[in-house]
Each structure stands twice: as C-alpha cells, then as structure tokens.
Amino acid sequence: MKRNTIYFKSFLATAALVIVSFLMLGVAFFILGRSFIINDYRNRMDANADEVVHTASAMYQTDGLNNWELRFVISSMAASSGNHIFITNSDGTVILCSDKELVCEHIGKEISPMTLALIDRAGDMDQITTLDGFYPGTRFVVGKPILSDDTTIGYVFLSSNTTSIMGAYRAFIGVMLAVMAAVILFALLLSLFFSKKLSEPLEDMVTATRRFSHGDFSTRIDYQGNQSDEITVLVDSFNEMAESLEKTEIRRQEFISNISHELRTPMTTITGFAEGILDGTIPQEEQNKYLTSIVDETRRLTRLVRNMLDTSQVQAKVTDKTRRKDFDLTELILQNLLSFEMRMEERHLDINLQLPEDHIFVHADPDAITQVIYNLVDNAIKFSFENTVLAVLLYKKEDKAYVSIKDRGETIPPDDLPYIFDRFHKSDRSRSLDKDGVGLGLYLVKTIIEGHDEDIAVTSRDGVTEFVFTLPLAEAQ
Description:
Blueprint: H1 5-63, H2 68-81, E1 84-89, E2 94-97, H3 113-122, E3 125-129, E4 139-148, E5 151-161, H4 162-213, H5 230-278, H6 287-317, E6 325-328, H7 329-339, H8 341-346, E7 350-354, E8 361-364, H9 366-383, E9 389-397, E10 400-408, H10 428-433, H11 441-451, E11 456-461, E12 464-472
Helix pairs in contact: 1-2, 1-4, 4-5, 5-6, 6-11, 7-9, 9-11
C-alpha cells in the first residue's frame, strides 16, 4: 500500500487537473456554443429575408406586393427553412403570410409604428420579441424594409420559435457533453498509465533509500526514458549518488579494516613481549632486546596517531585560501632535495635535476606544498633500487607549473594504481619494502593538491614510476 502512495497521489493530481481543465473548457463551450447557434440562426434568417426582399422588389414593378406568386415564394421558403414569414405594406398591415390557409389569422394585422420606425432608422431589426402581441409567445424576429426607388413599399418579417433554436443548442450541448465525457475518460486512462510509469522510478527510489538507511547501497534504479527528460536525469543522478555511497562505504570498511590491522599488529607485539617479561617466559638476559622491540612498536603507534592527526589538520587547512601566497617553487624543490642528501648517498642514488633557468613562482600554500614534495621524494627514495637515478623535473605550460618526480624500482601493479592515493592503502611493493609506513603519505599528497583545485597523476610501467602534479602560476609569471 505504501508503495502505491506516490502513484495514487500522482494519479489523483493528474485526474483533478484533467477534470478541472475540461470543466473550464465546457463552460467556455457552453457560452460560445450558445452565441454560435444564435448567430448561425440570425445569419440564415438574415439571408432568407434578403432573398424575400429582392424577390418582392422585383415583383412589385409588375404585380405589386399582394400577388399569388410572391405568396408561393414565401410559403416555399418557410417550408424549407422552418421560419414563419409575412409581408406588410408600407403602413405595417399584413398582406401576405406563409401559412397554408389562404386567409390566416395574421392577414390584416398591423405592426406597431415603433417597430416600423426602428426598421426605417436602423435598416433592419433582429430581436427576441412578441412584436407587441403579434405572436402569442416570444420568437426570434428579423425584419427588413422592401424598397423601390429608395422608397419603402413594405416590410418583410421572418420569425423562428425560440424553442427551435434552443433545441438545436441542446443537441449541440448533448454532443459536446458526450465528446467531453469520452475525452475525459480517455485522458484519465492516459493519466493512469503515465502516472504509473512516472511514479515507478520514484517508488523505487523510496525503496532504495530505505535500504540505504540499513547500509545496503547496492540498489540501482532501472529506468529507460528520454535522456533529456527530468525523470531520467533524476534517476541517473540517483544512481550516481548510490554508486558514490557504495564506494564510500567500501572505502570506509577498508579504512576500518586497515587501521584495525595497523593498530592490532604493534599492540599484539607489545602485549606479547610485556606478558613474556612479566611471567618470566623471556629470560632476563634477553629482556632488553624485547624491551627495544616494545619501544619500536610504541613509536610506530605514535607515528600512526601523529599521521592521522596530520591528516585531519591538512584537511582543515588545505581549503584556507588565506594561507596561500606567491613563492619560488624552484627554490622550494632545491631545499627539499638538500634534506635528502644523506639518504640518497646511503642508497647510492644519483639525482637528475631538470630545473628551468628562470625560477618559477606559483600561488599556493608553501607549507602544504613542502609536505607534498617531501612525501613524494621520500617515497621515490624509499622504493628506488640502489645505484639508480632519481629524476626531478620542473616546467611550466600555459598557466600551470608541472612537477615530475620519477624513480626506478619495482613496478606498481596495474590493479593497485587506482587506489594508490587511498588512506591506508599499501601496494605489494610497499608491503615488502615499507615496514614503517602506515599508508597515509600519498593520501595527504592528493588531499593537498585537490584542495588547491589542481591535479596529480601516477604512472608505473617497466620499473619506472612517475608522479606528476600541477600548481597555479603566480600572476606575475
């Protein structure tokens, strides 16, 4: 039932919109239809009256108005149109009528002078009236003068029962209501279908978010729609978010697993050695040796905690743009390399330093960039084979400064490269060569560089590993 809530509400909203729209349309048709029916009757009666006027004017020249041929014309026209027609002389006395009786009740009746004056003044008339009692009930009446040499010789009157007009109007309304009912039914069926189709991905999202709340981020929404419609964009964004959450959860679990491993190993060593000393398992003459191991493991724990604190501090500081300033990147690289001189001599490493003649100035946090260069050079020395060359290259391209640090050692496995900057991630070569590391150095490097809105990349093939990062040039460059 809960799953159908969105669908039901969507259908109700659409159905209400459809019904209100058609009700408004129905009112408009009701008003416009009445006007259309009346105007249509008026136009047809007006055309018939003109025809009688022209016929009467033509016959007047030879036989006058009171003749059998003209009576036959108006009787035939009345029978075909359903209107009542009569002709008066210039005084308003009825002399011809379309009724079947030769001498009907209308012959000899007089039309009021006011009505005749209205026709003379306006040129015609069309009203719903009784013609001052001429008809027992109201009728729609059209009146026109009959002219001969610009002189009024009589008048033509056509009338139609208002019930006939309203009957046609009711027929029109009936057809309109039937069509509206059919269209509303069809629209409701369409809204039922499309509401179901549009609500399905929303219902799936509700279900997926409930699973997310329980830690299951594997759910994806399957929706095939137009790539430009909003539902498709929403579904794609939702799936991207779900994928990001799933990756974050995997990394979180890996982080907990890795840090548990990093903490467990020294703590197990410390506990084991301490218990061995206390219970006498370790002979007294060897206790100093194991106490030294305890001190080493304690220092390792200290380094781990310090690195974790450094990570938190870097994440807090790296986005502080007030710490950034223009400085000489060339000089900074030279200072860092001098601090590694002893270590490079111990490992018999040569340095291939390629710096431009003109110093390169960049705009960044100098302390943070110092840590980046230090960590990358430290890694390069640590993993270089002895008697190899360590290459450091600095150059600029467009509005960026590029720093490349390259070492020759074991190749990083391709499967490890995408995760090389993750927290506590240690590649196979790291596990074999880096006994003291905790897997935070490269994570800090990436955090700092990305905090400057710049890029860092790594490649490793055929025993050559290269890290390259960018920095924005100072405005003076």
